[in-house]
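Chain X:
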Amino acid sequence: MQRGFHPLVALLAVAAEGSYAGAADRLVLTAPALHARIRALEDLFGTPMLTRSARGGSELTEIGRRVAQTAAAVEHQLARLAEDVGALRAGRTGRVVLRTVSTAKYFAPHFVQRLRATLPEIEVQLRVGNRQSVIEGLASGRMDLAIMGRPPRIPAVDAEILAPHPHLLIAAAGHRLAGMAQVPVAELLSETFILREEGSGTRILATRWLDQTGKGYPFDTVEMDSNETIKQAVMAGMGIALLSQHTVLQELADGRLVGMKVPGLPIMRNWFLVHRAGHPLSPTERKLHDAILGLRGMLAT
């Protein structure tokens, strides 16, 4: 859709900005021109798309939300088409968006570079986000393939195991429990646990482990929004954390962090390659999918 001219683009802009004035500025249109586009859309469907919000701006009606959702999906697909055409004009056979959870960012760039060397004719775009954003991307069709931990139940996906994904409890090298041959669970009750944000797969796993380990004991917790920040906080002595081993390999190797020996740890999970079930992969996507499976041994090292 040509931004600034199509009525659906005008509707998306008002929805995003929350007002006609903000949408007009965003699209570089006059207010009358913007109103005319919204009226044309309402005439087409025979119903209002927008209503006055409690804050004095504009918000979508229920029908307006349905129209805007479809318009956003169409706009995304058109953007993908433009990128695909650009890839073809550059001599490539196509483009594939590979999404990974943030925990995988410690190996994903090297992995993608190997894929690009193996399949130079395919443009591989790497996107990184937390678990919730990956699930939303799969549900909306904004991504083609994803590398993540536990596959979601919704949306339904096809999943292939790539490699083991261990999680361990880490502490600063000088922590009082760091040198113990086996840390009793009772010794953990007074510790502060540093957790990822809501929506993170690491957060879900850590919360479940704390509930099972402490049998409902209310542990002290602190929330941080990235693995890097958590690692720095642990090294500073702010607490301990359950993290993917892939995120702390360097710190464990150079002695800045230690893995604590606790009954039931490490927790062994798997990395999965997933794509939306019921949505057949294109030939280009299938080629990349198979190449990723062929390189899975790289993740196990």
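Chain Y:
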Amino acid sequence: MTIREALREGWSALTGSDTETPQLDTSLLLSHACGISREKLYMDLPEELDEKRLELFRANMKRRISGEPVAWIIGNKEFWGLDFKVGPGVLCPRPDSEILIESALEIIGKKKSGSLHDCCTGPGTLALTLASERPSWDISASDISVLAADFFKANNQKLTGSRVRYTHSDLMNGINETFDVIVSNPPYLTPVEMGDKVALGWKEPELALDGGGIDGLNLIRRLIPRISDHLNSRAAVLIEADPLQMPIIKQILSDAGFVRITFRQDLAGRNRIVIAFKE
């Protein structure tokens, strides 16, 4: 079987599955099986695949069809030009989170020093990206997931030389510091959304997705007062969530005493990031 034929086989197999990008997924899995770049893959379309690579490709395609993210299968996910190690049990970095990075960098501006904490860091998506952009800042991170801690440690060593401090914590419990900026991409899916994704075969951890409560905001309701306790005066918080949840989150922030509450939009023009300041 040639590379071209294997690509067609993969595209056909993924058609009708939960993926919106069957061609991209197939090319990533096949290039991974062949040990070459996607660019090289498309240059070698007429080339024959040996049996070992074809078996690996087909085995990985079965994993993808069952609902595993491509990033888990190949072991990494690019975000902000950085290569994050990911795998089963950890939430993969999402493109929408780059809007939070952009917004945080705008708030940080040209300040040469400061402190920033990433709550619900997962594999370190926000904390390590911001640490790579602002190496002179004191940056730390926390998460409740034991599995996520292992991936964070590997990514921290690779991307920052283990410069970012990590605490195993449930919503910043046990953290006694205060910060100039806190960022978070917490779980915020509703029970209905979780059920739909499970029905589609999603494998990503419920711990990183289920926000609790009928509106998916129970965790955020717990998180915002704790963030307030850990912010310096005039410090900022940035939270990523579903656009439909933003009006409620704005009210929760206002009730907690936050001011200057604004939103940042995703590429579809929907409010994806909420930004607020502590007086």
